[in-house]
Amino acid sequence: MIERYINSEFVKVEKKVSRKLEITEIAKKYGSRPILLQDLEGKRGIVNLWADRGRIYRELGMTRDQFLADYESALSDAPALREGEKLFRRTTDIEEVPVCWHYPGDAGFYITSGIFVAERGGKRNLSIHRVFIESKEGGYVRLVPRDLQRMYKDAVSHGEELKVSIIIGSPLEYLLAAATSVPFERDETLIAASLYSKSKGREMLFSKSKFGLTVPADSDYVINAILTGETKEEGPFKDVTGTYDIQEGQPRILFDSVETVRDPVYHVLVPATMEHFNLMGLPREPTIFKEIKKSGVDVKDVRLSEGGASWLHGIVKIRKSSNDDFARTVDASFNGHKSLKRVIVVDEDIDIYDDRDVEWALATRFQADRGIIIRRERGSSLDPSSYEGNITSKMGMDATMPIGGGRKFVREIT
Fold first, then answer.
1. 391 bridge partner residues
2. Secondary structure (DSSP) of 142-211
C-alpha cells in the first residue's frame, strides 16, 4: 500500500481539499515536498510523492550509479513472480475514487497515475495512460502507438473488447517499470519484480484482479474496466510539456468495478510538475544508457532535462575514445528513447545536472558546422511543433573535446 511511504518528510494537510483545481495549487505551493491530504473530499490522497529524485533513490536504496546498473540489469531479468495474499478485497465503484481536475483548460476530471495491466495472446503489458472520466459508466483513454494500443487494435480487429485493470497506489518499482518502453515481447511486470528484489532484498508479491490479471497484491485501487471499439476525440488535457493535448479517435472505456484495500490512499499526479517529469524521464534514462553502452561507447551518465519536460531533451556524459563516439552516442540515444528530440554529448568533466556547466561545454567545445547531426523521423506526439504524423527534426550536438585537442580545451579549476 502507498501508505508505507508516508514519513516525517510529508506536509500533512488536514483541511478539506477540493478535487477540482485546488489540488494543483497545493502541489505547486510546496514544490517537491510530498504532501498527504487527509481530506480530499472525504478520501485520503498523496501528491508530489516522487517529485524529488533524491527521495526516489533513497526509497530504492541506490546511488545514481547503482540505479543505472540495476535498472539496466532489470530490463532483461526474468524472475519468477510470487503470489501473495490479496489485500484489495473491498469492492466499490468509480464514484468513490477521488479523481481530480488539474487545470482550468482541461476537459474535466482525469486519472493520471493509473497503471494499465492488460493480457492478450500470451503477452502482458504495463503502461500508464490518462483516463478522462465522462460519467460513472465510463470515459475515454489516451493511447499512444505502443504496446497497449497494438493489443487493443488486435482485439477490435477480431470483434472483441480488451479487459484491463488500472492500478493506482503501487510500489515505486512497479510504477517505474510501467513507465519504461521496451520491446513488445518484454513483460514490464518482470522488470518491476527484478527491480523490487534488487531494491528491497525480497520478492514483490502479486495477486489477481477481478478480471484475473496479475497485479501487486497490496494495490490501493484496482479499477477493472473494458476498452471498447467505440472512439471519440479526447481532451484537451495539459500534459508534461505544459501545452494542451487533444487527440482524435481515442477508445471509450467502461468501468466494471473497483477493488481497494481497507483505507486506500489515492496517488494524485499533477501534470507538468516535477513528479510528472521524474516519472516520465527517469525510467527512460536507463534505456538510453543501455543502448549507448551496446554501441561500444563508454557512457557515464544520462539525463533527460527539465527544460525539455524530462522527455524531449537529453544530455549524455561519455568518456570519449574515438572520433566516432559522438555519432554512435546520438544514434543510440534516439534508439533508446524514440521521443527524444535533442541530445547534447559532453565529456566526463561536465556536470550534466548543472545546466550552466552544460552551456559552458557548448560555448567552448561545440562548433555548429562540424558538431551537429540532424535527422528527420517520427518523434513525440507531445511536441506541438512536429509535422503531420508526429514527424520531427532531431538534433545531436557534440560538446566534447576533440581527441588530442590539447590543453586549450581543459578548464582551469581555481
1. 378
2. ---TTHHHHHHHHHHHTT--EEEEEEES--HHHHHHHT----TT--HHHHHHHHHHHHHSSPPEEEE-TT
Q: Which residue has the cell 527534426?
A: 393
Strands (E), 209-275: 214-216, 221-238, 244-260, 265-268
State pLDDT tens for residues 181-201: 899 999 999 999 999 999 999
Least Cα distance to 130 among 149, 114, 151 occurs for 114
Q: What are the φ and ψ backbone dihedral angles of 178, each rounded to 5 degrees?
A: -65, -25
Q: For 55, phi and psi rounded to 5 degrees?
A: -65, -35
Q: Angle, to 10 degrees, between the axis of helix 64-74 and the axis of helix 53-60?
A: 60
What is the Cα Rg of the chain in Å? 22
C-alpha to C-alpha distances, 387 to 239, 357, 379, 380, 384, nearest whole angstrom: 19, 32, 9, 10, 8
**Distance from C-alpha of 44 to C-alpha of 98, rounded to nearest angstrom:** 8
- Summarize pLDDT for 124-181 with one digit per residue, the tens: 999 999 999 999 999 999 998 899 999 999 999 999 999 999 999 999 999 999 999 8
Cell numbers placing 124:
502482458
- Do the Cβ atoms of 146 and 212 come closer than 8 Å? no
3-state secondary structure of 125: strand
Sequence letter at residue 297: V
Q: Are 9 and 33 in contact (CB under 8 A)?
A: yes
Per the CB < 8 A criterion, the answer to whether 23 and 35 are in contact is no
**Domain 283-404, classified CATH 3.40.1670.10, yes or no:** yes
Let me know if domain 2-269 sits in CATH 2.40.70.10.
Answer: no
Pairing of strands 391-399, 342-347: parallel
Q: Give which of 217, 298, 310, 226 is closest to 259, Cα–Cα.
A: 217
As a whole number of angstroms, the distance between CA 336 and CA 281 comes to: 12
Taking 3-state DSSP, the helix, strand and coil percentages for the chain, each rounded to the nearest 5, stand at 30, 35, 40
166 - beta bridge partners?
116, 223
Q: Give the C-alpha distances (Å, rounded to integers) separating 203 from 171, 254, 265.
A: 12, 33, 23
Position 85, amino acid = E
Collapsing DSSP to helix, strand or coil, 57 comes out as helix
Note if 39 is an active site residue.
no
DSSP letter for 281, please.
H
**Burial zone of 400 (CB within 10 Å; 0-12 exposed, 13-18 middle, 19+ buried):** buried
The domain locations on the chain are 2-269, 283-404
**Which candidate in 147, 218, 239, 325 is catalytic?**
239
pLDDT at 222: 98
